[in-house]
From TrEMBL:
Keywords: Cytoplasm, Hydrolase, Nucleotide metabolism. Pfam families: Maf (PF02545). The record marks 16, 81, 167 as: Important for substrate specificity. Belongs to the Maf family. YhdE subfamily. It catalyses: UTP + H2O = UMP + diphosphate + H(+); dTTP + H2O = dTMP + diphosphate + H(+). The keyword Cytoplasm applies. The active site is at residue 80. Its EC number is 3.6.1.9. Its cofactor is a divalent metal cation. It comes from Herbaspirillum chlorophenolicum. This is dTTP/UTP pyrophosphatase. NCBIfam families: maf. Its main location: cytoplasm. GO terms for molecular function: hydrolase activity.
Length: 204
């Protein structure tokens, strides 16, 4: 594989997104904004609208930082991942109790993982944005309370939407997936490559 001939900015502090982006040979630099995006759900907002809006806010915030710091203009990639079950949006658990509640809810059932990605390209005063939201269905086996507690006593749930990581110990809870493994981990690579190519980034 030839390396991409154009560097991009990755507007994400997620180590998984970094690792995944490397899989498709993208040359990138991290662009972290000083200002955290407000990830609270607005009243009446659907999960799809929520994940798309937060992704757009992350992109806007990174664009603002690029302009403010007078950095060279490059395509910027942002993403947001959320887990949805019973119409509820599960973000990152705040503590052990919340992690246990989340995994208990997921046990023995199928839930959705939504990952929205956005690529923005600023040229002069114009910014073009390409965005897509990828959905996967993930089925968990029935889990005993001891297993749930033991899992929540590890560090794995705490920086992840829905309190689990499919790339780690929780892989043994997942009986089936329909969708994108990389999407569940936080960056759907098929869709990411498509958007980056639309923004003029050469990948192969
Ligand atoms: C469901 C699931 C989520 N996750 C992670 C991916 C994301 O890092 C995290 C969801 O949180 P996000 O808010 O999407 O991302 P983040 O806060 O980690 O990073 P940033 O906002 O700076 O881009 O959950 C996994 O690693 N494995 C999984 O199986």
């Amino acid at each position: 594989m030839k390396p991409a001939d154009q560097k991009i900015y990755l507007a994400s502090k997620s180590p998984r997104r970094r690792e995944l982006l490397r899989h498709i040979g993208i040359d990138f630099e991290l662009l972290l904004s000083e200002k955290e995006v407000d990830e609270s759900v607005l009243p009446g907002e659907s999960p799809l609208d929520y994940v798309a809006r937060v992704t757009r806010d992350k992109l806007n915030s990174a664009q603002h930082t690029m302009i403010l710091r007078q950095l060279p203009h490059r395509p910027i990639l942002s993403a947001d991942t959320t887990v949805v079950i019973d119409q509820l949006i599960l973000g990152k658990p705040a503590d052990n109790d919340e992690a246990v509640q989340m995994i208990t809810r997921l046990s023995g059932r199928t839930h959705q993982v939504l990952t929205s990605i956005a690529v923005g390209l600023t040229m002069g005063v114009e910014t073009e944005v390409w965005q897509v939201t990828q959905q996967s269905d993930v089925s968990f086996a029935e889990l005993g309370t001891e297993t749930i507690q033991a899992y929540c006593n590890t560090l794995e749930p705490y920086d992840k939407a829905g309190a689990y990581g499919i790339q780690g110990l929780a892989s043994m809870f997942v009986s089936n997936i329909v969708g994108s493994h990389s999407g569940i981990m936080g960056l759907p690579l098929f869709e990411t490559a498509q958007l980056l190519q639309k923004a003029g980034v050469r990948i192969l």
